[in-house]
Write a structure and sequence with these properties.
It holds the Pfam family An_peroxidase. By secondary structure, the protein is α+β, with helices and mostly antiparallel strands. It contains 29 helices and 21 strands.
Length: 928
Amino acid sequence: MTTGIKAAAWREAYLGGSPEAERQLFARMAVKIMQTQAKNRKAAGGPVVPGFQAKVTFAVDDAELRFLDLPPELRVGFAQPGAVYRTAVRFSNAEGRILSDHEPDLRGAGLRVHVSAAEQHDLLMTSAPVAHARDARQFTEFALATAGGGLGRYLGLGRLLFVLGPAETVRMVRNVQAGRTRAASVATVTYWSRTPITWGAEIAVQYFLRPLATEAASPPAGDPDFLGHEMQRRLAQGDVRFELCVQRFRDERETPIEDAAVDWRSAAAPPEPIAVLTIRSGTPDSPAARELRLNPWNTTDDFRPLGNLNRVRKAAYDASSAHRNRERFITEVPLRNRVASAAMRGLFGLVNRFRPWHRLPTSLALLNLAALRDVLRRDNLIDTEVREAPPQVRPVPAKIEEDKRDFRTPDGSYDDLSEPSMGAVGAAFGRNVPGRANTDEPNPLVVSRELLHRDAFIPATSLNILAAAWIQFQVHDWVVHARHPLGVDDVRVPLPPDVPGWRNTPGGPLEPEMRIGGNISRGIGADGHELLFGNAASHWWDGSEVYGTQPEKARELRDGAKLRLTPEGYLPVDVHGSEITGFNEAWWLGLSGMHTLFAREHNVLVDELRARNPQWTDERLFQTARLIVAALIAKIHTVEWTPAILATEVLDRGMHVNWYGVPAKDWLSRIGLWLTDANALRGIPATVPDHHTAPYSLTEDFVTVYRMHPLIPDDYAFRDAATGGHLRDDTFLDLQGDRADDVLRELGLANTLFSFGTAHPGAITLHNYPKALLHLEREGEIVDLSVVDLVRTRRRGVPRYNDFREALHLPRIERFEDLSQDPETVRRLRAVYRDVDEVDTMVGLFAETPPAGFGFSDTAFRVFILMASRRLQSDRFLTADYRPEIYTQFGLDWIAETSMTALILRHCPELAAVLPASANAFAPWTKP
């Protein structure tokens, strides 16, 4: 594939056949580079160091690079005759371990040429004229194989014989051995780029630094850092100078672009001096220059790196640098875990053909779920984000500000410090199963009427309405699809013949179709055909429904360090009567109560933190309180809401292990996890971030399985918490929109929570969709939310139910009777759908008989077990940065000691008689 510059004689070819295929290969290779760092760290017993050139021997930040009188064709960009630039210089040993300077090794030199505040150029070189690796694959496999030293290095080289072949393995080993020397001075070594770059539009070159010093040096015995000391002594006597030279590309045989193992030194490519680098006499070693993160892609288009070995360096060097600086992490998995987990996957894959996981004994069921989660992590994390391919040049990345390291940002950026935009507002929804184009048949209005409409309320008797309010409260934090206003890009649903018309706007005319505001697309994905949608919330579990997702919104909600509340402790309202909070769409009394409760919790935390830290600013108080509240929400959902809606011993134990780890007395589980997943022994907050097989995002399939509108009752009875006496009756429509605030203030938070706590939500099943949501007025339009749910799922490319099941490693259903045992439901399914493969995913999830104790289907649960732990495991604020330095020890203790019940009783102590301290707040409360 050409670069697009027709005049150029050189060409680039992408591994895997395309830039995107190569990018995916490079992403995996970057992980292998981090694994080399982990092996080196383990061997050395110290901190993580750079994957390459780990030991800096000497560095300066104010050397001078002066260009000579260049031929016209080399006068490109900053390379102009007589131009002078301040240049940082860093010399290092090539090993990925910190070793004595007396050890034989390659030596490295790196330059950062400062042209302006916005333009710098990084030049990287090594003391061998040719690379040992021909391409990126050889480069990463050799680095991983030889990391750590000792016996592991020899075992790794043995593995390379099978991975790369004997001839290439032997060639690389010989090349490296020949290049390793015992250098006497970094000032007398020649340093080669070994890979080419462009020089303007048409020319490609390799470059090298050759010393102008000739004075020999004798390494002193016993000084492991003599190279740096020798350079200091040399500079005490005078300047140290190098000549920067280039060699031009001539042809693919003698000067290839993609094969880095070919030596460019030939008569066809003579060296051309272009500049002189001077390190001035008396220049001291610079700590700042030692810490430079050099990357050849820190440059401009005129000097773009060429060849796949250069292209992998962007991902590999960035990963290595981020790993070293605790901005990217790798989970070290013991060999016994890899072997045992593979065996478990095979074993339970066989067992599950005859017996599902939920019909196994508890301990075996837990191991079965762990094996299933491994399979789902391997196969069902699909990245849809359009990513940079091929690599592009860039300015030197700015240093990350401390507040972005220590606190959550409003839009979710910088949660992953190595990829700041990951999971931020606007990031694309990923997938758990491959997307698929859907038709609009059968008519979603018919599907809804025949299979979803509530004939009579079907209660979920193991839960209370707080559980319904809670999940909506959470979903608004997790997933929001932006949509066009009605009339801009409508989805048009034709009405069945027996429906005379639909009024799409309040007071509007009857129309022959239902119009639904279309979702705002981000365009086409990397595959060239999938339509992508961005999340209007951040993908992180960060409490954004309370705190907002934009800086201006966050500021509007604050009163100093606290959230704005009325003197009576309620959310303020705007001129339209809507309560002011982070996200107030689809608003009703249940959300009003949740938002009020957690706004009060934030303000109590601010007072507690201020009392302990009187010197703190309002900003630090606010941000720390937010961290605590967000983590508390995640903990409550993990260990309380989830075991309430999936009411089995297996899930109760599993979710507690997710957060707390395995109890010390549960020796059987400890042995099992020690063998299969040692990292799970401690609980996710005690681990490090791990995105597994794809960058973190929530998914379109995740949105689908959390369509739980049947939880909402149509009718509500409110009672006095102290006496149980009847106060009032309302329908859902009486409690939604701007009416919610009036009702909450009239009833009071305690009576509202009590009334919800003692009443049941609806069951998540067919024929139980709330009547109030079938003709709902919101934001100037009238919608049937059941139809909207069906249409949205289809339009977002979520496969139909049978394909969805198969992609999640479940058997396909063959008959409608496999989906429901109710004859009337089967009759209606047959009347609506031509065959079982046409059944909508949401319909199938509602129709499926769930495992005993479950509030939703086993198919939906597949996405749940994959994504529930992922939301914790990917988030550094819930893993590596879940520590006293970020939260304070007080904050961690507060989270540990606070349950949903304790939270309610803290703000409504009068509920103690009906909500025992040991009770799950999402299970039905006792009545006075």
